[in-house]
Amino acid sequence: QVQLVESGGGEVQAGGSLTLSCTASGSGGSIAAMGWYRRGPGKQRELVAHITSGGRTNYADSVKGRFTISRDNTQNTVFLQMNSLKPEDTAVYYCGAGPVRVDYSLDYWGKGTLVTVSS
Asked: What CA–CA distance (Å, rounded) separates 52 from 50?
């Protein structure tokens, strides 16, 4: 069973930056895909960013140019660098892991970390 632990959430003012981290354990090897989803107040969960073990990335249109996803395959760790944060980025951010799928869905999830962006 893969376990994921996120860190790095918090409160920041609009225009600020935060970096989220997530480390996976229990996989027995490299994880094919990792990513970040988020659920804002009153909203459905949505994909934020996704990265394969080969480094191929995909971003939601709303975060392109502001967020960067990266990973350390040796540590099964994924990062999300978030710049120019906006109040609408306020959400619980969930780290996920799993196989590569065309719809970017993932199988394993962390408990989430709260990001609050104040105006």
From this structure: 7
Mapped onto helix, strand or coil, the DSSP state of residue 42 is coil
27: region left, alpha or beta (phi > 0 left; psi from -120 to 50 alpha): alpha
**Mean of the pLDDT values across residues 92-109?**
96
Q: Is the dihedral of CA 33, 99, 110, 86 positive or negative?
A: positive
b/e 97-107 (16+ beta carbons within 10 angstroms → b): bbeeeeebebe
Res. 9 pLDDT band, cuts 50 70 90: very high
| Mean pLDDT value across the chain | 96
- Cβ neighbours of 55 (radius 10 Å): 10
